[in-house]
Every structure is written in C-alpha cells, then in structure tokens.
Design goal:
This protein is an alpha/beta fold. It has one domain: Carbamate kinase. 39% of the residues lie in helices and 19% in strands. It contains eight helices and eleven strands. The strands form two sheets. The protein has a nine-stranded mixed β-sheet, with helices on both faces. Strands 7-8 form a two-stranded antiparallel sheet. Strand 1, helix 1 and strand 2 form a beta-alpha-beta unit. The two termini are 25 Å apart.
Length: 236
C-alpha cells in the first residue's frame, strides 16, 4: 500500500556527482533510477525536479564575474543536462519518461505545460521537469514548489544525503538531534536551512508538506511513499 499517489521528487544536482566530485556519477545515477522505477512499479505518479549544481551554479558564477541573469540561464541548462541523463537511465530500465523544459528547447524536451504533465503522470510515465522556472533569480527549490502546486502533488520529497532535519548541521555538530516532524513556522523561527525562503513560503501557503530523507540509501524512496518514518516531515 502506498501513502502518496502523486509526488514531486526534488534531487540536488550535487547528489549526482557521487564520488566523482564533479559532473555525473553513472553509478549514482543508476541507483536513483532504480529507486524511481520502484515507485513507478508501485503505482505512484512521479514528477522530478533536479538541480544543476554538479555542473554549474548561477550564484557561484556571479562570484566569478558572470552576469547574474546569464549565470542563472547557464544553471538552467545544467538542469536540462541532468534531466536528460536521468531520462536515459530510466529508459535503460524500461521506464517511460518525458523531459519537459521551462523554456522552449525542442527537440531536447517538450515545453512545460501543466495539463500535458498531468496527462503523462496519469498514464504512468515519469515527468522530469527541467530548466527551473525558466526565469533568473529563482532556484530549483522554488521550481519544485511551483510545479508541485501546479500539478497537484500531495507532497514534495526532498532527497538529500542527510536522513532528515536536525537542530543543526549534523555533519558539523555531533550533538545535533533529529526531528521526526516539524512545522513550517518552527523551521523559519529556528532558521533551519531546508529550502530557500521563496520555495518554503509557497509550500506553507499552499499546504504542501515536504519530506526530507536520505536518498542515497537504496530503498528509502519507496519506504517514504509507503509511509515509513525514516526522515522528517515538514508541514503546517
């Protein structure tokens, strides 16, 4: 039995680096594709947003002298590259998927259209939503929140390398303790870094919960969809 019928999975671009330190680690990519296949086989409708930080980050580019708008546009292109890589990995596993882009890029991907995305989801295909929002100054976190609202996702699953939300960064503070659940307001009050504030506010105002979990542990994605408590639920 699955708890969520339609989800939006948010993956960071950095997570695709695996042990490579840059670009795309094929082993990590295939591990993620395997977990996504398990969701599809369970009957879950899956939409995915991937960041591009393993290739290029707009803000980092600004620090190196790039114009902010051009830097963000380069970051959008990086998300498209990651999305195509994931689509290829899913295809190799006989999972049907479609890449949508926030800006027109045929034949690389189809221009994002909410109704067409929902149609693909309802037909059992994975919808990979690339290019962020299509606008500079917005992160892929914000794109995830926006797309989740538009397609009627029940929850955003934020796959990270940490197994939930802690009182502090557990990689830096060994005394940090984990929350099983926490409210949007408490996250803001504690200034915990889960998503950027624009994305976070959109989720709170539209009552879309966020589940933070360790995506790098094989099998965790399906456990979350089945309702197992392995991470942290952020909600109203």
């Amino acid at each position: 039995m699955i708890k969520y019928k339609r989800i939006l999975l948010k993956l960071s671009g950095e997570s695709l680096m695996g042990s490579e330190g840059y670009g795309i680690d094929s082993n990590m990519l295939n591990e993620y594709a395997t977990q996504i296949k398990e969701l599809v086989d369970s009957g879950t409708q899956v939409a995915i947003v991937i960041g591009g930080g393993n290739i290029f980050r707009g803000l980092k580019g600004v620090g190196s002298g790039f114009d902010r708008v051009k830097g963000d546009q380069m970051g959008m292109m990086a998300t498209v590259i990651n999305s195509l890589a994931l689509q290829s990995a899913l295809t190799n596993m006989k999972v049907k998927s479609k890449v949508f882009t926030a800006i027109r890029m045929e034949p690389v991907g189809e221009l994002y259209n909410r109704d067409k995305v929902v149609e693909k989801l309802e037909s059992g295909k994975v919808a990979i939503l690339s290019g962020g929002t299509g606008n500079p100054f917005f992160t892929t976190d914000t794109a995830s929140a926006l797309r989740a609202v538009e397609i009627g996702a029940e929850i955003i699953l934020k796959g990270t390398r940490v197994d939930g939300v802690y009182t502090a960064d557990p990689e830096k503070d060994k005394t940090a303790t984990k929350f099983d659940s926490i409210s949007f307001d408490e996250v803001i009050n504690r200034q915990l870094n889960i998503m950027d504030l624009t994305a976070f506010t959109m989720c709170r105002e539209n009552n879309i919960p966020i589940y933070v979990f360790d995506m790098n542990k094989v099998g965790n994605l399906l456990k979350v969809v089945k309702g197992e408590k392995i991470g942290t639920l952020v909600s109203n």
